[in-house]
Amino acid sequence: ILFLDGKELIDLPLIERKKILKDVVEENERVRIAEYKIGSGKELFELARKSGLEGIVAKKIDSAYEIGKRSKNWLKIKAENSLDVVIVGYTTGTGEREDFGSLLVAAYQNGKLKFLGRVGTGFSKEEIEGIIRKLEKEKISNPPVSSENVKLELPEGREAIWVKPKYVCEVRFLEFTEDMQLRAPVFVRMREDKSIEECEIEA
Length: 203
What we know:
Blueprint: E1 3-4, E2 7-8, H1 14-24, H2 41-50, E3 55-59, E4 74-78, E5 81-91, E6 102-109, E7 112-119, H3 125-135, E8 139-140, E9 160-163, E10 168-173, E11 175-176, E12 182-183, E13 186-190
Antiparallel strand pairs: 1-2, 3-4, 5-6, 5-9, 5-10, 6-7, 8-9, 10-13, 11-12
């Protein structure tokens, strides 16, 4: 709660504003006050991660409300997962990244490569240059994954380029979607120490 009876409350500590909110708002079928827990942040985060939730929001109980600002007093902590995936292609991009937009990745499921989507963030300029040098030598005409699960909706002017499944990289992501695509994937690093056969997901 930020205002009450014409009075601004933004400078009050968060815990006081929560108490005021509980006193003035009557809950019903349509209105619920968000619950919170003081302490046990690590345990709550682990519970959120195991439950497949996006994460938690951690707030200092004595923090004021800062309008239009990002503050270290309020943190969104995402429960991300990590996975080693096979690089099966890449897309072209725009602007300074005209030659590279994203990686196309997959993993083995029941002995076959299953397409998991695109990874377009997390790269440094040097990493992009190194990846392109590797992949340009491995271009092929057709996707090395089952065409039935390849869902690519590329912006106009961008192109998908398929490569031999030879290289592995690590990605972070929030979760798998219902159709087994990576949600919000981020490139972490190349995995020269991993073989493509080691990149497996459960059926």
